[in-house]
Amino acid sequence: MSTTRTALVTGGSGAVGGAIVRRLRRGQLNVAFTYNQHEERAAQLAAETGAAAFRADLVQRAQVNEMVQQVLARFGAIDILVNNAGVTQVLPFALIEEEDWDLVLAANLKTMFLVTHAVARGMIARKTGCIVNIGSLAGHRLLEVPVHYATAKAGVSGFTLSLAKELARYNIRVNSIVPGLLSDGVGKLVPEKEKAEYLRYCTAGRPGEPLEVAEAVAFLASDAASYINAQSIFVDGGL
Predict the structure, then answer these.
(1) 172 forms bridges with which residues in the sheet?
(2) Which listed site, 55, 98, 165, 183, has its alpha carbon 20 to 30 Å from 70?
(3) 8 A C-beta contact, residue 83 and residue 58
(4) CB-side exposure of 64: number of CA atoms within 13 Å?
């Protein structure tokens, strides 16, 4: 069993997930990451970084449990969990159908619940661990964003706060990162009108980069952040 700490990153084949995987690997951690549809991108990331890729549909409990057991079999323990997986749809409220609502809430919240539920048991048993949830400014600010996506990301805050309180007795920290507009990933779906409005008020005057989110994740996952718990860290350029 390796004495090097191990991180599990969900949604690792996306822009932000890939940046998180690369940054944690540079920190000399063992890193496992999940993907579902983008097999080629996942293979490239694994080859580039030496991280281990695991395919799973994270809304399916059986697949989540099997994936976590595979990670444990390879690395022995999961010390850090980064809940990054999620999707959005650019739809006005009047055009959101019930299946759209279910899809977006499941992809952003049910996945977080199922993976955390499977991983936290080991952390509780060992009385140590760190969980970092990736939220969005859409769940915290008055922005023109899809309602179902904003609702799901607002849920990340409640999940983080409640879980941090419950798991504190086991020496497990739970925090969230709240990215603003980014140059890649979901940020590519933002219409030009909304981008211009964001940049008008953003003190940094530019979109963020996935690596800047990854740096914040790496900090929260490190011992340097041992006194930080139940917080939402905004990486939004200053609004």
Answers:
(1) 129
(2) 165
(3) no
(4) 21
The residue type of 24 is L
How close are the terminal C-alpha atoms of the chain, in Å? 45
Q: Specify whether the backbone of 88 is left (phi greater than 0), alpha (psi in -120 to 50) or beta.
A: beta
| Residue 151 to residue 160: CA distance in whole angstroms | 15
Torsion sign, CA atoms 7, 9, 13, 14: negative
At 143-165, the pLDDT tens digits run 889 999 999 999 999 999 999 99
DSSP letter, residue 33: E
DSSP label at residue 110: I
Cβ-contact 78, 71 below 8 angstroms: yes
Q: Which residue has the tokens 């983080």?
A: 160
Q: Which of 35, 149, 198, 201 is catalytic?
A: 149
232 contacts 140 by C-beta, under 8 angstroms: yes
Taking the complete model, does pTM exceed 0.90, yes or no? Answer: yes
* DSSP symbol at 206: S
Whether 227 is catalytic: no
For 32-79, write each residue's pLDDT tens digit: 999 999 999 999 999 999 999 999 999 999 999 999 999 999 999 999
Please count the residues of the chain.
239
DSSP state of 94: G
- Beta pairing, strands 30-35 & 52-55: parallel
Which of these, 73, 8, 18, lies nearest to 40 by C-alpha position? 18
Beta pairing partners, 234? 178
The strand order across the sheet containing 52-55 reads 52-55, 30-35, 6-9, 80-83, 129-134, 172-179, 232-235
